[in-house]
């Protein structure tokens, strides 16, 4: 009823404007002002236009939507795999602003729906490999993180990009328990963040991102372990120094800042040599950089990947 009433109001507004013979200028002003307003709900599905057929897509079978959206890690909503979907129902991801500051010339706070007007959306079908040794293939929808970073104009001092998740225990009940240092934080080196494989996702499987997958905005860096893919981001800060990352603070000997998928470096408590693709019976070998070595190995030339894990 509420949505229909809004549609009706919108239509009658436009109808009044046109029937009064108002020129295109005012009409676009009316439309423009409406669409620039931060909204309290995701834009309707028809506005999720995106290009398909990226050269980065894997042709491997996609993990079913049901598994992608019901087997999750999102400790802000609980530590069991089925808790995020159950406990994030009703999570309000609109209105939502993203602040970008630090070593940039154009610091800004922007409404999340403005980002999807600035940057054309693309589908990227990527493998995702969790540090727990399971994996999925997910058709994300998003835009290159580098496009946003270019827009804020990093200064010459910027070397890293730090990300922060929303902190709001009222809306994220898992934050009431001290299982991690809240808010969840992550980081990338600036050149990693500028790599065209790194995207900010706003959707998956042709739909807006479900809350349990990190609505309204999450990072996807497919050559790294899944925990680098920080969800529900409210802040991006460019820094001169390497920022902390939640899991490497929680267990420095188990989770590194780089966290590149590497079958040759085991987790202290399990092998990283193979993985369980969700929906498959037999384990499969884990690939260096999760199969993206051709694209990203050059970023780490000369680095000892056993030391910088
Ligand atoms: N981001 C936040 N804020 N909180 C989390 O607990 N879990 C991480 C990552 N991003 C996590 C997070 C881990 S461990 C993984 S494997 C992926 O999200 C899981 O993403 P998915 O549930 O969409 O598959």
The arrangement of helices and strands along the chain is HHEHHEEHEEHEEHEEEEHEEH
User: What is the helix fraction of residues, given as a range?
Assistant: 10-25%
| Main sheet: strands, sense, barrel | 8 strands, mixed
> What is the number of helices?
9
The CATH topology name of the largest domain reads: Sulfite Oxidase, Chain A, domain 2
**CATH architectural designation of the largest domain:** Alpha-Beta Complex
> What overall form do the CA principal axes indicate?
globular
**Structure class:** alpha+beta
User: What distance separates the N and C termini?
Assistant: 53 Å
State Rg: 21 Å
As for the number of domains, it is 2
- Strand count: 13
CATH class of the largest domain: Alpha Beta
CATH superfamily of the largest domain: Oxidoreductase, molybdopterin-binding domain
| Average pLDDT | 90
What secondary-structure arrangement, pairings included, does this model have?
Blueprint: H1 2-19, H2 24-36, E1 50-51, H3 65-68, H4 83-87, E2 97-102, E3 108-111, H5 112-118, E4 121-129, E5 134-144, H6 145-152, E6 160-165, E7 185-189, H7 190-193, E8 199-204, E9 207-208, E10 218-220, E11 233-239, H8 246-250, E12 274-277, E13 284-285, H9 293-296
Parallel strand pairs: 1-4, 2-11, 5-12
Antiparallel strand pairs: 2-3, 4-5, 5-8, 6-7, 6-11, 8-9, 8-10, 12-13
Helix pairs in contact: 1-2
Bound molecules: ligand MTE.
Ligand MTE binds at residues 72-76, 130, 165, 184, 213-214, 226-227, 229-232.
Describe, in short, the structure shown.
The chain is 22% helix and 22% strand.
